[in-house]
Amino acid sequence: MAVRVQEADFDVGAELAALRQGDPRIGALASFVGLVRDVSDGAGVSEMTLEHYPGMTEKALAEIVDEASRRWMLIDVLVIHRVGRLLPTDQIVLVAVAGAHRGDVFAACEFIMDYLKTRAPFWKREVTAAGARWVDARESDEVARERWQI
Predict the structure, then answer these.
(1) Tell me: the pLDDT tens digits for 87-128?
(2) Burial (0-12, 13-18, 19+ Cβ within 10 Å), 39
């Protein structure tokens, strides 16, 4: 299980290959890649900056991954989340989950992403034609996370 917060971009194919590492127990691999869009809430976005508190952020992400590992039978998980200045089409996040069966990895991947959107300590600032603005989690993100409550 690995969590990385970094400014540098990542190679999805290389990361997925490394996660699998030829492990014959792995029968399913699910991944999600989040990208910077050029529109948010109806306004054009020219750039986005993601800020975080080093140490605190990695701990929070590891706790989300640990919770997913308690809920589903997983072999390995990788979460990479970028910080710093990002432009439209840049990759923001990779969540990759490996397991024996597709049901577990699909569910865990979606769970991790839903919790990242609402519980991970990142602060997002978008630049639009009207100026810069800080962005909170959307209500739809909170609704998505709430379905995992037990």
Answers:
(1) 999 999 999 999 999 999 999 999 999 989 888 889 999 988
(2) exposed
